[in-house]
């Protein structure tokens, strides 16, 4: 990072910590707030991205036809002379459909809003929810519900080519980043990271099964929360 008169120069905006350190006046953060922001970014933003990519690669191994379709899309847009880059991503709709379909079948955050507390007794439909109950949204159940998704257990990225479903919280059939006030603030960064890394991994490697095959068993493990 370069500084001119104590400020960041035009040549470099510095990294994220520099940006936090340079916030001025009413925007400036205390040390403990800064640590909290960085802590949240690291613990919320690393596992989720890694887990999603791991599921996508497992699916690429299991569905070689889908893998090669994505590779053809990248090859015809980018060719072999350069690495796929961020600016290519808007022109790779099938790649995006693969990421969306993996978020549907294997959402890294399957339970949303699990810290919401019912402060009054309430009836929702036929269900009575007493005050003091912690309410969660089971996104996994919604994305596997055959009343919501046709053939919910089939991995079919094409469904997102046929229908443009937003995953950013406005369509509750698929809200892998949550929705409303406590929606994931890192959703755009997470999507951009996963799409770019996936594109580069597909551009450079063919993904094939090992002798032990692919283990798709899931477990709920909220260590990152
Ligand atoms: C593909 C990657 C990601 C997925 C699937 C994901 C998913 C989620 C989900 C489901 C929630 C909870 C929403 C709710 O309870 O209603 C959440 C919250 C959060 N995420 Fe992400 N996330 C991802 C990437 C990131 C990244 C990259 C960052 C930061 C750099 C981040 C930071 C956070 C934070 C700080 C919260 C808590 C928000 C709050 O409670 O107000 N996430 N995320």
Automatic annotation (TrEMBL):
Molecular function in Gene Ontology: heme binding; iron ion binding; monooxygenase activity; oxidoreductase activity, acting on paired donors, with incorporation or reduction of molecular oxygen
Cofactor(s) of this protein: heme
Pfam families, A to Z: p450
Record-level GO BP terms: secondary metabolite biosynthetic process
Keyword Zinc-finger: no
Signal peptide (UniProt feature, chain positions): none
Metal-binding in keyword set: yes
UniProtKB keywords: Heme, Iron, Metal-binding, Monooxygenase, Oxidoreductase
Residues that, per the record, bind heme: 184
SUPFAM superfamilies: Cytochrome P450
Coiled-coil segments on the chain, per record: none
Family as reported in the entry's similarity comment: Belongs to the cytochrome P450 family.
Name this polypeptide is given: Cytochrome P450
Native species: Coptis chinensis
Lineage: Eukaryota, Viridiplantae, Streptophyta, Embryophyta, Tracheophyta
